[in-house]
Amino acid sequence: MFSVDELVVYPAQGVGKVERIETQEIGGVATELIIVRILSNNVTLMVPVRNARNVGLRGVYTPEQADEIRAYLQDRSDFTGYSGQNWNRRYREYSEKLKSSNLRDVAYVLKELILIGKDKELSFGERRLLEQAMGLISLELSFALGQEQTEVKRSIEALFADILHAKADEDELEGD
């Protein structure tokens, strides 16, 4: 069970704070609700206590779990790449992973899109998914590690510096 003022993660929404736990009558049935305010956009969610785990509500990762995510981002052995796969299929797969309560699934999307961007220009939709994945990961890791989100973003980008710098150099050459 979660407690008031606890930081929690709601899939696809990000880190939130439990504001209160209250009972409301819904459809004639008394329902205990966890009221969560999402920190990135101030959206308030009402999550039935009995369904909290089913919808993926969980505590913020520990520093050890955050380190595991960083190590996973560095490991490129599971990179499947573009391989001509239908964009609609990839988009659906990535969108589902972004809704996962497992931050490793979100990290998979981030890693895939950064690595795909090495070989081809990302579409608007791909860039949007990349930004969403980066936002979800960097915000949670910032709380897990006690660092500013911008600092965490920079450290994640540093993990891919070889790719990001190579792409920037390539783009610069094409502009000449």
Describe this structure in words.
The chain has 176 residues and is of the alpha+beta class. The chain folds into 2 domains: 7-59, Thrombin, subunit H (Beta Barrel), CATH 2.40.10.170; 63-175, CarD-like, C-terminal domain (Methane Monooxygenase Hydroxylase, Chain G, domain 1, Up-down Bundle), CATH 1.20.58. The chain is built from 6 helices and 5 strands. It has helices at residues 63-74, 87-98, 103-119, 124-145, 149-159, 161-175; strands spanning 7-10, 14-26, 29-38, 44-48, 58-59. Strands 4-3-2-1-5 form a 5-stranded antiparallel sheet. β2 (14-26) and β3 (29-38) form a beta hairpin. The longest helix is centred in the last third of the chain and has 22 residues, at 124-145.
SSE topology sketch:
Layout: E1 7-10, E2 14-26, E3 29-38, E4 44-48, E5 58-59, H1 63-74, H2 87-98, H3 103-119, H4 124-145, H5 149-159, H6 161-175
Antiparallel strand pairs: 1-2, 1-5, 2-3, 3-4
